[in-house]
Amino acid sequence: MPTTTAHAAATATEPLWAKVVDHTRCIGCHACTTACKSENEVPLSVTRTYVKSVDVGRFPQARRSFQVTRCNQCEDPPCVAACPTAAMHRRPDGIVDFDKSICIGCKACIAACPYDAIFINPEDGAAEKCNFCAHRLDVGLEPACVVVCPTQALMVGDMNDPLSRVSEIVHRDTVTVRRPEKETRPKLFYKGADQATLDPLGARRPDGGLFMWSEQGDVDHQVPAGHPGPWNSSAAAVLSYDVPHRAPWDWRVSAYTFTKSVAAGAYLAPLLLGALGVLPLTNRLWALQAPIVAMIGLLLTGALLVWDLEHPQRFWMVLLKPQWRSWLVRGGFVITAYGALLAAHVGASLAGRADLTPTLGWLGAPLAILTAVYTAFLFAQARARDLWQSPLLPAHLLVQALVAGSAVLLLLESGTGVSDGVAACFRWTVAAHLVLVLSEASMRHPTAHASLAAREMIRGRHAHVFWIGAALAALAVVAVPWSPAVAAGAALVGLFLYEHAFVQAGQAVPLA
Amino acid sequence: MSIDDLERRVSAAKEDVEGRGETFYPGASRIHLAAFPPKERWNDWVELDSRSWPERVEKRYMLVPTTCFNCESACGLLAYVDRDSLQVRKFEGNPEHPGSRGRNCAKGPATLNQITDPDRILYPLKRAGARGEGKWERVSWDEALDDIAGRIRSCLEEDRHDEVMYHVGRPGEDGFTTRMLAAWGVDGHNSHTNVCSSGARAGYHWWMGMDRPSPDHANAQVIVLVSSHLETGHYFNPHAQRIIEGKKNGAKLIVLDTRLSNTSTHADFWLSPYPGSEPAIFLAVANWLIREKKYDRSFVRRWWNWQEYMEEVHGERDASFERFEDVLRETYAQYTFDFASSESGVEEGTLRSVAETIATAGTRLATHNWRSAGAGNLGGWQVARTLTLLNALLGALATEGGTFPNSWNKFSPRPPRLPHQHPRRWNSVLWPDAYPLGLMEMSFLMPHLMREQDAYVDVYFTRVYNPVWTNPDGFSWIEMLTDERRIGQHVALTPTWNESAYFADYVLPMGHSSERHDLTTYEQYDGQWIGFRQPVLRAARQRLGEEVHDTREVNPGEVWEENEFWIELTWRIDPDGSLGIRRFFESVERPGEKMTVDEYYGWIFENSVPGLPEAAAAEGLTPLEYMRRYGAFEVARKVGKVYEKPVDDTELEDVRVDEAGRVYTRAPVPPSPRAPGGTKIEPDAEGRRRVGVRVDGEIVRGWPTPSGKLEFWSRTLHEWGWPELAIPTYVRSHVHRQNLDADQMPLISTFRVPIQIHTRSANAKWLDEIAHTNPLWIHPSDAERLGIEATGELVRVETEIGHYVLKAWITEGIRPGVVACSHHMGRWKPEGQEGQRLGMMTVALDQDGSRWGLSRTKGGGPFPSEDPDTLRVWWTDVGVHQNLTFAVHPDPVSGMHCWHQAVRVRKAEPGDRYGDVAVDSEKSREIYGKWLEMTRSASRNSPDGTRRPYWMLRPVRPERSAYDLPETEEAGV
After folding, report:
1. Residue B908: φ, ψ to 5°
2. Which helix (H) or strand (E) holds A52?
3. What is the signed CA dihedral for B217, B222, B226, B230, rounded to 10 degrees?
4. What is the C-alpha separation between B476 and B674, in angstroms, rounded?
5. pTM of the prediction?
6. How confident is the model at residue B968 (pLDDT cuts 50, 70, 90)?
7. Which residue among B33, B263, B772 places its CB closest to the CB of A214?
8. Which residue of B has its CA nearest to A25?
9. Residue of B10, B34, B240 with shortest CB distance to A27
10. Residue A499 in contact with residue A376, Cβ under 8 Å?
11. Mean pLDDT of the region B463-474
């Protein structure tokens, strides 16, 4: 059988594929875009590669800058780390490839990719992106975009071969990569590219939903391209062509963070009060009510997670084909273990062995805490989203879980009389949450990306949700004496709204 | 391993391919990966399926070459025919094509969209109701052919030859149809050229006797482009490759384009001139080159027709060259940088730097103008004429890195059974008296000329042409097309619905690029090649041993191709041969039988393409098999200075050399494999033909002009009523500031975008997804002045005859005081008509006497079809149709429609809706009349009683006697 990798056999080392886009040659003709659509049968509305353009400068000193926009084939690919099933994987030759047959459609890779290079193919519901036309490389052919390019502005090469044209350009010419601060070490190098295109916030978004010869689009969950305010570059820069981009995670992920807070908090809050000696760990509330609410929260969490998958029937792959670096996998196991513990707790209570529940409680505490906070790591794994990279996020999620938990306790006790301990816990956790929320809202964020995300949350598209959420939290603090049920309701709705604003604003910033 | 052992997947990588003794096609990466599979395996190539990846599912393909039919470049394509389904899976470039060299633009791969377009026309249709009513019935090809052929036969029998007209947009072929019209004896060739390139052509033609430039960009030192040739211009992909190649080799790039294009982005000097001022810039450069003595004196002395000029214009019969140099210097002294700067708005220092840069080029100055300014302005033909002046000063013509005339960089092979007759009747609708020097047919004036001459066309073919949409003043076209007293039968030959086909009697579906035969040859570098377009499934099935006799057997539905259609139609026009037409479409081998396409092209490849039979034989193929397998053949490379080539002694017989150095001979024209064409230089008084010119004592080929030299001064222009324009000069455009009211601005309405191509590509979903609207480009200072606050706001653009409403695109990429709108997009179908849904809006047409309105009732958007992708169409805007609101502006000399418009731009009025168009066709007739007043007709100005200078290029040239002005013809018509 003739080998398809005869070259690999002939050379001493495995190649390390890299690509160069030479913008001193690129004429912005979009041939690469359609050649890729054709080669890879990419449907309308999504794209593996396209040519963004920015009009820079003022007449008569003006130019149009291009950016051939696609997967960066990172040395340290965030999508691979985030993928729960290793559907996204890095081949030994450096190509970040994908296997659609094991993609569950969780979109964690999309959330993670700092370059917005991955999409869900509407034909098969699986994630895909540029893979250097691996199916062509493996039979000795150049990628389709390289072949079609009229001006030979695109090329692939082996970084292990110092004489390859790509090595020569990367090592001898001035090249740049997109968003090096993301520490992904891209292997897509740009020669002669412009800051105004490389920086997704470098150019201003035109008004009127219009680009120079296309609509900006009005698609579901759209992330409008370009900076909504003034440009970031020193020269006047207006985005003149881009494609519609979409945020990966919709309200279901926002809701999941909320139900998970309830699931974790409903167990943690009584446990905390028990530890402080304020709440006896013997009553019915602890023995059955709280853990049952936690279980319901957990079931809803699971249901939302599965519902959000493009391939819900492949959910089991998270547990049976785990890619251990993925926080989706780690979280999945945490939730599973936590669910088992809750089941044991309820089972023991129903079996008349409530005496076992305090012990189960101490065993369950770390699981409940992990259930509350792992999402911070999951969000942090979405390396693209600067807003979510906050070191305080685990602590805040823990506080949010306690807000939800104490609100649940407040509701459970509202019929029988609210204990001081529960009321105090509720007030203090809601207050702590408010302090954290207002800190988020008032502090300057460290990157332009995070600033813009925060701006979208506080003053932009998600401001109404954010501020109603904050107001409800404030209302909750003052309403406890007046009506515990109203206070608890306000806290829970406020929490949901805040989490929605936070999750959506984190995705509201253009990345390409 | 035998290369015929094709059962297994093999690698295309260098070592493997070369190890097997096959052809390795290196790509841009210059590594072991191939750009294309080795040609030895094109018959059966195995690739991995991209959709099944990473599962290694093997797919077997037959790679069949053809030629793209989107723009004029005719780039090579390689169709991947799936050996299991026998359908085309994809199109890549053809590495064997010398022009495109395996590369393509966005439109090449998107050919797949066009052949799988769910709305394409699959069967012949005949109108069932009134013309334009939208009722159609399916008919058989036989019925359509018999009906059309019967009408044409009657025309020919009744001496109504000029009632048959073939109106073509993109020819996309070389010689087949003009040969057919010559065979029919019909002067009915009507082209789109006067809305396209006549301006540039005229400028080149009057210099060199050839009408197109072929710049050798790759070897240039300085490249001057008028417009956006890097991403959209004529021969876009082949030229873009070579421009970037030249630039990487150190060439300086100078670009004149009023708007910011991708090309101007790459320029070392981007000049954004006020529209129409381009010749002023070139003349200022010329003035500087002359004054600073930076020109090639020896070249000018040897090759310009300066003696003739000195004698005729200055009355100095034996003037010395030095005396001419003085005159030249004085003549151009007025064109200072200061003058050019004030005309163009480009800063004086920049113009000086441009001149200094051009002076460094020597004979490596590659220049190009095709449409753009040449197609925009009154006197736009002076753009090419003054640009060529720079080449002519530097001697950078037909030099390495210079600009060649097209004819030397293309090869039109001679077809079999070439008709020797010429049409006997002159078609005055196409070649009217008022425009004797019009380079091509006055096509866009047809509604006006038909009315004025009370003319009637019995059979009117439109092919790859959509006059209602493309031409200015489209409503006048609708008026003409729906008037059965003007058009007896309109036959639209088209793969897809278009605005003109709605007003046809027959809509006959013709194939896209991979579904038809054509021969192409274009001037794209210093070499000569031919390309072959073929129905790829026909070729594939034939390779698999099937017999295919008709392209309809392999095309979808009953889609046909024109070659076979014309042969069949001709046979039905003259079924018994009594009209003397059929014989030109009879088999060479089997006289009396119908010629097949295989035979037509087989004969050409065997008899008329030097080197091809030998190359084919080396591979054990017939020439036709070779072309079916590889799709292209390079006939020559490095053609060089044809004008300096000595005339062979065998061609010198009873020679006479006249006073001007023109050499005449009695020796017959040696047999040539090339199709006859080009200018027709008159013989001398004793009937000797001209064979060359004597320069410095040597008899060389010279130029195909009346003088045999480069015509700095055109005797033709001088004698036919335009003495003031006989040398390269500056004509103030109709949109020159002095011709505008204070509230008017010039509108540039012609710019192309790289992704679309006129009306041919609206059915390509991948292209539409990228580019689907055409807002008005306006500078922020103008927007502010007019109260347009933001991009996307609706504005109203008022022309001489109406207005249209569109969105504003506020941009720094346009000169202040000028607006621009791309001519792509704005496609429509009238309510109640079927037609394409992708890229077309639905409109209501409203007529009240001469007042017309068009309003959008439904935009684009998703729709269900057999292609699931059409439900994913996420855009609804398909642009605005602006050409409807343009009056005709025929240049009185070149005949070119001068596209630029003087417009008023204002905020939309309350009732205005996006896409609205309103026009008064009565006003367009007034404007036609105004422009007509500028003309100098043949009947008043002809120096020799003819309708047109005989020597000038002319498609389907009529007999010499048809050139004579009729004695009864009224002057001025």
Report:
1. -60, 150
2. strand A49-58
3. 50
4. 41
5. 0.96
6. low
7. B772
8. B244
9. B240
10. no
11. 96
Tell me: the pLDDT tens digits for A389-428? 999 999 999 999 999 999 999 999 988 888 899 999 999 9
Predicted confidence (pLDDT) per residue in A267-286, tens digit: 999 999 999 998 888 889 99
Q: Which residues of A touch B102 (CB under 8 A)?
A: 147
| Segment holding A51, helix H or strand E | strand A49-58
Q: How many residues does chain A have?
A: 512
Amino acid at A99: D
Tell me how far CA of residue B771 lies from CA of A256, A391, B877, B878, in angstroms. Answer: 39, 43, 10, 9
Judge whether residue A351 has pLDDT over 70: yes
What is the sign, positive or negative, of the torsion defined by CA atoms of A467, A468, A473, A479?
Answer: positive
Give the model's pLDDT for residue A14: 86
Instruction: Confirm if B210 and B704 have CB atoms less than 8 A apart.
Output: yes
Question: Which residues share a beta bridge with B189?
Answer: B166
Across the range B44-50, mean pLDDT stands at: 96
Give this complex's ipTM: 0.96
Q: Which helix (H) or strand (E) holds B695?
A: strand B689-695
Query: CA torsion, points B338, B343, B344, B347, in degrees to nearest 10?
Result: 20
> Contact, A321 vs A307, CB < 8 A?
no
User: Residue B232: what pLDDT?
Assistant: 87
Residues B556/B115, Cβ–Cβ less than 8 Å: yes
Is 60 exceeded by the pLDDT of residue A11? Answer: no
Structure tokens belonging to residue A71: 């997967």
pLDDT at B973 over 50: no
DSSP assigned state of A311: S
- Mean pLDDT in residue range B800-813: 98
- In Å, what is the CA distance from B587 to each residue of A226, B593, B626? 64, 6, 21
Q: How far apart are CA B277 and CA B285, in angstroms?
A: 13
Residue A62 distance to chain B (closest CA, Å):
7
User: Cβ of B28 and A219 within 8 Å?
Assistant: no
pLDDT at B93 > cutoff 80: yes
**pLDDT at res. A231:** 67
Supply the pLDDT for residue A180. 96
Establish how many alpha carbons lie within 13 A of residue B529's alpha carbon, considering only the half-sphere containing its beta carbon.
27
CB B799 within 8 A of CB B751: no
- The residue in chain B having the minimum alpha-carbon distance to the alpha carbon of residue A124 is B51
Q: Per-residue confidence at B461, pLDDT binned at 50, 70, 90?
A: very high
The per-residue pLDDT for B2 is 43
> Which one of B32, B106, B816 has the shortest CB-CB distance to A59?
B816
Q: How confident is the model at residue B420 (pLDDT cuts 50, 70, 90)?
A: confident
Angstrom distance (rounded) from CA B354 to CA B359: 9
CA of A161: which chain B residue's CA is closest? B31
- Which residues are registered as beta bridge partners of B181? none
DSSP B447-515: HHHHHHTT--EEEEEEES--HHHHSSSHHHHHHHHT-TTTEEEEEEE-SS--TTGGG-SEEE-B--GGG
Which residues, 6+ apart, have CB-to-CB distance to A351 below 8 Å?
A: none
B936: buried, middle or exposed (CB in 10 Å: 19+, 13-18, 0-12)?
middle
| CA–centroid distance for B186 within its chain | 22
What tens digit of pLDDT does each residue of B492-537 get? 999 999 999 999 999 999 999 999 999 999 999 999 999 999 999 9
User: Which residues of chain A have a CB within 8 Å of the CB of B807?
Assistant: 208, 210
Q: Which helix (H) or strand (E) holds A439?
A: helix A420-442
Strand, helix or coil for residue A292: helix
Phi (first) and psi of residue B685, to 5 degrees: -60, -30
Q: Which residues of A touch B244 (CB under 8 A)?
A: 25, 27, 151-152
Q: Residues B683, B688, B692, B696: what is their CA dihedral angle, to the nearest 10 degrees? A: -110
